[in-house]
Amino acid sequence: MLSFVVSLSRMRAEMDHKSMTPEVRAILDVEEANGARVGNRFRYGLGILIGISVFVNAKTPEQFIANSTALAIYMGVTIVHTLVLRHKSRRSTIAFNYLTLIMDFILICGLMTYYSFRASPENFAHAIKNPIITYLMMPMALTVLQFRAKIVFASLFLLLLFYGAMLAFGLYWGMPLTSDWKDYVLGPTVILSEAITKPLPFLAMACILGYSTYRAVFMVRRIGDLETRRASLARFFSPDVVEELSAGESALGPGVRQKVAILFSDIRNFTKMSEGMDPGELAAFLTDFRNRMTHAIFECGGTLDKFVGDAIMATFGTPRPSSVPGLDTRNAVKAGIAMMEALKELNADRAAAGDPPVDIGIGIHTGDVFCGTIGSEGRMEYTVIGDPVNTASRIESLCKFLKTNFLISQAVYDEVADIVQTEKMPRVRVKGKELPLQVYRVIS
After folding, report:
1. What is the pLDDT of residues 304-338, one digit of tens each?
2. I need a labelling partner for 198 at 20 to 30 A (CA). Which of 39, 260, 323, 353 fits?
3. 3-state secondary structure the chain
4. Is 251-442 assigned to CATH 3.40.50.1110?
5. pTM score
């Protein structure tokens, strides 16, 4: 029993629109509106079927008038519902969906009561045994189109309320009871236990429809959350890493300390270059440049940590380090080489357009850093923090001082010396370091 209550509580929380992301909430709002419109169209189709029934089953002018009046009210409510839906007000639509549901039950139960008094004014059993009761399934079935479990169970509540009121009135009126099934089926009596349990199929139907609605909403929510998560991760991680992280709810986990290779890149003389561009041209250039550089980083398994103006910071070995020693550092250097190749292609395109070439500097260092999600409550980001990050930034800034494009630290050189051609540069003292740094220029 406790587990059932917990399950209901969890289902209710998952169906709560306020707990959903804005993207999922927007999708469900659209689907609710579409479902209401589809349900409204179904009502016109049902109106036609009911109209046929009116002509076929009405044996007297009085019955024809009663059926036609009920049909006219039904179609009038349907038409007003259509007009409400055209206003596209979610609150009005939801309110009228409930009102439409109430009117349907009033019409169906009203017809049963009418025919009961016309056929047997002294015995209300006719209303309880009337086959028109099966029509109560129609408004309940239409609720499942609206992606709201609440309205499904509201239809069940209304059914039990109206049917219970009719049964209570019949007992009060003196409806004859029996325990003989033959007398019940062929005679004017009612088996009380059968009359009480008659709504059970409707209860089962409501539970199935309600759970189906919950599953549909849950599926939309899961897919929406997953796509939102993927879109967020795709800004920073390569496609393979995005796929891996998307598989778990807390794949990034808490902050950890691990060995990471850090790459910094910066456009040379960007301030001077940007002064000659209008805002639209500058935005187009930065977008194209970032796309090319990010593609090179992702192709080598890197993670985009952040953009800072024209600068790019990327990490290799995040969120999880490679199981192969030195592979993350090698991938960082490969990414740097790929970025230089991408820069050649960019400059070729710029030359064809008559624009001046772009020059960049790249610096790479490796070491133990803190990796984790940090920030304020409203804005969290995955990043790395530690002295190796500052060192990588300093190495990148040395590119301009040493008049080169691509520098790596001694720690990086020790792990990639066998795969790249380098030139040893003079030791340079940088801010924040007691000893001069030994760096190497990457040639190819």
Report:
1. 888 888 889 999 988 778 888 889 999 999 999 99
2. 39
3. CHHHHHHHHHHHHHHCHHHCCHHHHHHHHHHHHHHHHHHHHHHHHHHHHHHHHHHHHCCCHHHHHHHHHHHHHHHHHHHHHHHHHHCCCHHHHHHHHHHHHHHHHHHHHHHHHHHHHHHCCCCCHHHHHCHHHHHHHHHHHHHHHHCCHHHHHHHHHHHHHHHHHHHHHHHHHCCCECCCHHHHHHCCCECHHHHHHCCHHHHHHHHHHHHHHHHHHHHHHHHHHHHHHHHHHHCCECHHHHHHHHCCCCCCCCCEEEEEEEEEEEECCHHHHHHCCCHHHHHHHHHHHHHHHHHHHHHCCCEEEEEECCEEEEEECCCCCCCCCCHHHHHHHHHHHHHHHHHHHHHHHHHHCCCCCCCEEEEEEEEEEEEEEEEECCEEEEEEECHHHHHHHHHHHHHHHCCCCEEEEHHHHHHHCCCCCEEECCCECCCCCCCCECEEEECC
4. no
5. 0.54
